[in-house]
Design brief:
Helix content is about 45%, strand content about 5%. It is mostly helical. The chain folds into two domains: about 30 residues; about 130 residues, Cytochrome c-like domain (Cytochrome Bc1 Complex, Chain D, domain 2, Orthogonal Bundle), CATH 1.10.760.
Length: about 160
């Protein structure tokens, strides 16, 4: 019986410590790690910590059921990692490219409208999680997606190798 209480105490201390470490990590994220491409011209923007937290929450609510950890459940060959986003046409490795995609999604080569298969503002009648997202919300989601490789490295979108 005493052994159970000891394990319970250890687990409580561990999880309490994890809560404080996780919160401190977001605050300590430096400006360079939060700097992402705004558009294809090379302009950059620094995503605020507040926007990262909001973007994460919105991403979890609207996107994470198919994109957990930056992976793509329906097509593991195309993920939310920098290489995949840069290879799409038009490029999606910048905030404006991702926002455009969330409004009007197209196939990876950019030729086919896939709004009836992928949640978007265009298909909000089919995908209710997209109904209440504003333009600012789309920007914060895009910021979250683009900052994650700076935090998690190849684990973001890395597929089964990093699970």
């Amino acid at each position: 019986m005493l052994k159970r209480y000891i394990w319970l105490a250890v687990a409580t201390v561990f999880f309490t410590f994890q809560m404080f470490v996780s919160q401190a990590f977001a605050v300590e994220l430096d400006q360079a790690s939060r700097t992402v491409a705004l558009d294809e011209s090379g302009k950059t923007v620094v995503v605020s910590v507040k926007d990262l937290e909001k973007g994460k929450r919105l991403f979890i609510n609207a996107c994470a059921q198919c994109h957990v950890g930056g992976k793509t459940r329906t097509n593991p060959n195309v993920n939310l990692g920098p290489e995949s986003l840069a290879g799409a046409l038009p490029r999606r490795d910048n905030i404006e490219g991702l926002v455009d995609y969330m409004k009007n999604p197209t196939s990876y080569d950019g030729f086919v409208d896939i709004s009836e298969f992928h949640p978007s503002i265009e298909s909000a009648d089919l995908y209710p999680q997209m109904r209440n997202l504003s333009e600012d919300d789309l920007y914060t989601i895009a910021g979250h997606i683009l900052v994650q490789p700076n935090i998690l490295g190849k684990m973001w979108g890395g597929g089964k190798v990093y699970n």
